[in-house]
Amino acid sequence: MRQERAVRTRRLILDAAASVFDERGYEAATIGEVLARAGVTKGALYFHFPSKRALAEGVLGEQFAGFVLAPRVSKLQELVDMGLALAYRMRCRPVVSASARLSLGQEMGAVFGTWTIRTWLDATERVLREAQEQGELLPQVDVAESAWVFSAAWTGVQVYSHTLSGREDLVERVCALFEHLLPSVAVPAVLGRLVIDPARAAEVALEGERLAAEAGEPAGLDGVGAPA
After folding, report:
1. Beta strands in 118-220 (DSSP E)
2. How far is CA 35 from CA 4, 102, 151, in A?
């Protein structure tokens, strides 16, 4: 029971920290705000997270956790589902949304480096390379370059949606992104079979969270068929 209580307390603190970081950014956030939202004592917070930096690291660590995407027959569909699921989770899961803001903040790059961006880039390149091996890509496609463009464009869509609509239209904007970029890399026969639909986002995200819960452990972008 003590262990279960500690897990619940840690979860409360992470959720509270995520909401504060997402609203105010890393520099403006304070431990006091996190304590007020979590409803825990300072001692409890410092037992799990000895500093604001440790709190931010905890939130960042959750960005790619708790989600498993089962491998798709079409690897380009897998790429689409990765993006749709992340867009949905950013809108509905504060810790995922906060992780995105932290990983993109200029001050965070100086403090924590660029591992979250690199993780997303590597995952995108991995899936595109698998798509290439299956004959889903046009002959002239440079996988590494395409992964960079897809990842950077996704980030731009996320930032614009966050700024202009509070991410209310994020799923729809991500669908538009794929509809614009995929024709430049996909062979026509594969392109015509891809499902790029806002309604798919919730379905994929909830399926992935269910699979992660059944597995009993969080997954990450570096696992086979396991993006965030």
Report:
1. none
2. 20, 19, 35
The alpha carbon dihedral of 38, 62, 18, 84 has a sign of negative
Please calculate the CA angle 26-32-33 and round it to the nearest 5 degrees.
Answer: 60
Reading the block at residue 216, the tokens are 């009993």
Listing DSSP states for 4-64 in one string gives HHHHHHHHHHHHHHHHHHHHHHHHH--HHHHHHHHT--HHHHHHH-SSHHHHHHHHHHTTT
**What does the alpha-carbon distance between residue 128 and residue 145 come to, in Å, rounded to a whole number?**
10
Domain ranges of the chain: 2-58, 75-215
**Residues 154, 105: Cα–Cα separation, whole Å:** 16
Going by CATH, does the domain composed of 2-58 fall within 1.10.10.60? yes
According to CATH, the superfamily of the domain at 75-215 is Tetracycline Repressor, domain 2 (1.10.357.10)
Task: Collect all residues with Cβ–Cβ distance below 8 Å to 41 and sequence separation of at least 6.
Answer: 35
d(Cα 186, Cα 139) in Å, to the nearest integer?
9
- 100-154 per-position pLDDT tens digit: 777 776 555 666 667 778 888 999 999 999 999 999 999 999 999 999 999 999 9
Q: Residue 198: which pLDDT band, with cuts at 50, 70 and 90? A: very high
pTM of the model: 0.79
Q: How far apart are CA 209 and CA 217, in angstroms?
A: 11
Question: pLDDT of 16-65, one tens digit each?
Answer: 998 898 888 888 889 999 999 999 999 999 999 999 989 988 888 777 67
